[in-house]
Amino acid sequence: MDFHSWRADFCALMFAQRKTLIVAAALLDLVALDCQIAPAAPMRCSGEQKICIANCNKSPDRSSIPTCVTNCGARQSLCMKTGCWDSGFQKYCGLLKQ
Asked: What is the DSSP string of 13-63?
């Protein structure tokens, strides 16, 4: 094998590797862009209260619903003061006090 054919093979290999890297980088960019298109809406205390009341209304024990809704109101009041929602099972903070 002479120098020129070796050089041509080497250049062809480098071109193929570069092309593969460019295609892979483009695909990664598309995936990253797709993940950032629609940011989530900020969570609000009022939204958590609505979810809480909706969950109360799903209870098969109809007599417990008024107490459950009252507890949602207490949780809403605390959330408006602290920005944290405590569902009784999980506590998370950083909610908008609206």
From this structure: HHHHHHHHHHHHHHHHHHHHHHHTSSPPPPPBHHHHHHHHHHHHHT-S-GG
Count how many domains the chain has.
2
Which residue in the block uniquely carries the two structure tokens 């979810």? 51
**Predicted local confidence at residue 32, as pLDDT:** 61
Q: For residue 23, report the phi and psi dihedrals to the nearest 5 degrees.
A: -65, -45
So what's the pLDDT on residue 81? 94
Indicate whether 54 and 28 sit together in one domain.
no
**What is the reported pTM?**
0.57
CB 54 within 8 A of CB 68: no
Residue type for position 63 = S
pLDDT of amino acid 96: 87
d(CA 25, CA 1): 35
Residue 98 covered by a domain? no
